[in-house]
Write a structure and sequence with these properties.
Blueprint: H1 15-24, E1 26-31, H2 35-51, H3 61-66, H4 74-79, H5 83-93, E2 97-107, E3 115-118, E4 132-138, E5 149-151, E6 188-189, E7 196-201, E8 206-208, E9 217-225, E10 238-243, E11 252-254, H6 263-280
Parallel strand pairs: 10-11
Antiparallel strand pairs: 1-7, 2-9, 2-10, 3-8, 4-7, 4-9, 5-6, 5-8
Length: about 300
């Protein structure tokens, strides 16, 4: 895909970019952060890793990086409200936006960790909605060698397909879930320079390989939804309003953290995890570790 993919001066996607997203189910190479901001963000993340090397409240920092980190880490909540990201997502989803999840995907240099072929919304309890977009921002050089994402263009046009849970330790997905029978010849790579972003539809088939580069591969994934996604759905789920209004009130709106790993935020974190666990672990034949902290906070 061409790397000359600057957004319009307003920050919104151009008509050509919107058409590409609608056709392929993803678009890559959008400029979000300059090199100085990327450097500062990476330093902030690595400072967190150093400061909280033993974790917080009995859970590892990796747990918070991978699941609902925006509930307890102010930096991740702030990044979900980045205007340049919101402008691009608004072009697709409209003016009312909530952040459902904010995650960091980190592969160390030489790591064999992979992400198998999957559709994001398979286990999220959102049905086959079109009203979810993942913004994936590179905070390092996410080249082909570093294990950038690969996409199957147009795969979002149909419904959710069957996935097999592998629980493979080398797989970064919560259940090691994968779609079988993918022809790699159909895949397109989506490399990103530091500060660039891709957007992909929740049903778009995508995967990523091991990090063969000499640097860490750091990616920020923000899952955006609209108020309408939860209309009429059972159960409870939570999201942070980042633009517009939520008049539907199907989501339990959260405000973002009061500080870094504060006691009230940690209670909320475990409440969210508990309420989400039943849906996100449904049908699994063993414990889904990312959604099992052993906490029973109410």
């Amino acid at each position: 895909m061409p790397k000359d993919n600057a957004m319009s001066t307003s920050g919104n996607l151009t008509d050509a970019q919107l058409k590409q997203y609608e056709t392929d189910g993803y678009i890559s190479g959008l400029n979000v952060f300059d090199s100085q901001v990327v450097s500062e963000l990476r330093q902030a993340i690595e400072t967190l890793e150093s400061t909280y090397s033993e974790g917080a409240d009995g859970s590892s920092l990796a747990q918070y990086f991978r699941v609902n980190g925006h509930v307890v880490i102010p930096l991740l909540a702030k990044l979900a409200s980045t205007p340049a990201i919101l402008d691009a997502v608004q072009s697709i989803l409209g003016e009312n936006l909530l952040a459902w999840a904010v995650e960091l995907f980190i592969k160390e240099p030489g790591s064999e960790k992979t992400v198998s072929w999957h559709q994001d919304i398979t286990y999220w309890g959102m049905g086959e909605t079109n009203d979810e977009v993942t913004a994936w921002v590179a905070l390092s050089d996410v080249s082909v060698d570093a294990g950038c994402m690969r996409f199957i263009p147009g795969s979002h046009a149909n419904g959710i397909v069957g996935h097999t849970d592998t629980f493979d330790e080398s797989n970064l997905l919560s259940r090691g879930q994968e779609i079988g029978g993918i022809d790699e010849a159909d895949a397109r790579h989506g490399p990103l320079r530091p500060g660039e972003m891709s957007l992909h539809h929740g049903r778009c088939f995508h995967a990523s390989g091991p990090n063969r580069s000499s640097d860490r591969r750091i990616g920020l994934a923000i899952r955006y939804v609209t108020p309408d996604v939860r209309a009429g759905l059972p159960g409870r789920d939570y999201a942070m309003l980042v633009r517009g209004a939520d008049e539907v009130q199907g989501w339990i709106n959260i405000a973002g953290p009061q500080g870094l790993f504060t006691a009230p935020d940690l209670v909320l974190y475990h409440r969210i995890l508990r309420d989400q666990a039943a849906v996100l672990s449904e049908g699994a034949n063993q414990t889904v570790k990312l959604y099992d902290t052993g906490k029973n906070n109410s």
